[in-house]
Amino acid sequence: MFLEERLLRKLRAAARRQGVSAATLVREALARYLAGPVAEASVPGIAGRFASGTTDTSARVDELLWNDPHR
Fold this sequence. Notes:
The protein is about 45% helix and about 0% strand. By secondary structure, it is mainly α. It has a domain at about 1-35: Arc Repressor Mutant (Orthogonal Bundle). It starts with a helix and ends in a 5-residue tail after the last helix. The model has no long low-confidence stretch (mean pLDDT about 85).
């Protein structure tokens, strides 16, 4: 495997910070990459489980997020 010098320096520095060999870091990174999409990247299971009764939430997102509800 060939790595450009800049990438190799970054790899070695990261391995030193983590207290592992560069080979270990590469193996772990490849294993994660080849395992597929990260579970956190998917929509949480709680999404869509509650109904507020409000049907225009997406159209009023700025108003709902940024206006002071106490005024």
